[in-house]
Amino acid sequence: MKRSFASLSTAALLTVVAMSIGTAQQPATQQKQQKQQKQQKQEIGVPVPPLGKGPFILDTAEQHKIRVAVVTKGLSHPWSLTFLPDGSMLVTERPGRVRMIRDGKLDPRAISGVPAVLTVGNSGLMDIALHPKFAENKLVYLTYNKPGDNRQIATALARGRLDGAALTDVRDIFVADWLPENANGYNSRMVFGRDGMIYVSNGASNSDSSQDPNSHRGKIMRLRDDGTVPPDNPFVGRPGYKPQIYSMGHRNTLGLMVHPVTGALWNNENGPNGGDEINIILPGKNYGWPVASYGRTYEGPRVSETPWREGIEQPLVFWVPSIAVTGMVVYTGDRFPAWKNNVFVGSMRMGEIPGTGHLERVVFNDKTEEIRREIMLTELHQRIRDVRQGPDGLLYLLTDEDDGALLRIEPAP
Questions:
Q1: How much of the chain, in percent, has pLDDT values that exceed 70?
Q2: Residue 99 is part of which domain span?
Q3: Residue 160 maps to which CATH number?
Q4: Counting Cβ atoms within 10 Å, is residue 331 exposed (0-12), middle (13-18) or buried (19+)?
Q5: How high is the pLDDT of residue 13?
Q6: Is residue 181, in this structure, part of any structural domain at all?
Q7: Within a domain: 172
Q8: Separation CA 146–CA 251 (nearest Å)
Q9: 66 is a domain residue
Q10: Considering the entire predicted model, what is its pTM?
Q11: What are the residues whose beta carbons fall under 8 Å from the beta carbon of 383, sequence distance 6 or more?
């Protein structure tokens, strides 16, 4: 895989070159990160206006006029969504609720049966997915942060059956390593592969554990649909390795998908202050965090002396500065012909500046080499947490706000 410089400015290119010079620095601690982020917000003081009622007619570079409709508001930090066979949607809220949206209306009642979650910082209820045979078995999967004894936390994968407005027979089928509550980076995404296995990520943030083969942190796991370990996983039977591990060296994976054309597994992950990535995930490979990164720590020093190292996979796409990349989908519909096979990712901010969340479009050639990018929806000033393609061929976005919204992108009339 090749590094892509197609859309970087001259200044950004100079930044990347300069990153190969200097002394390696250890990642910042969580306490230092939080202190600096608080200081930055106070110093920058960017007012973020609330989202209006819409719809919004916006211009784009190649598809041109689009219409952004506000389907519904009233969601508390929505994290992920999935479409049911009848066209309705299930949406997770980080505080620990699953909500139903049917015919564009948010059901005031939460789905019952959701496991108790621990919400500390950015932890809580995260991803949601349907079993490939959901129409037959009604199985729904959730990733969440599980509370433990003695102020501990773990990333867990739970499974239950959807019965009307309730999840029944809910149980954990995988629980990652237990950590202190004040540990950071336990975000998670999941997706079913074409092989019928479920791929689940577990974050690591500023921790060396991404390189520890005996830890679930900073890894993507591969599991059977009941949570057991497939015998053909790359590290099964290897001493000192967790058998669930499929790939390692990740920071915080906030987007995970199966490419609808190639069938390959793709992830995106957050760097700290720069170094966000898109990767094509291969079995047994190491993606570098924190020994090789294009990012800087929140205080400014480079994460690693050089952004590449022998035995480390290079990112397909990276961002300097960071955009806090989230969610990911390849557009395959017919409603936006100019966007066919483009990759869309969400952004929660640009370069540590509040109020700069947006949607980003990445265009590849037939060799999966990046050729251009487009930044969209900056006018809305919203943190975009997830992006999905609906069965109607339109794009749906979740905004990670206190009064979060579901947005729909349509062709302008």
A1: 89
A2: 10-52+72-397
A3: 2.120.10.30
A4: buried
A5: 36
A6: yes
A7: yes
A8: 20
A9: no
A10: 0.89
A11: 324, 347, 348, 349, 357, 399, 400, 401
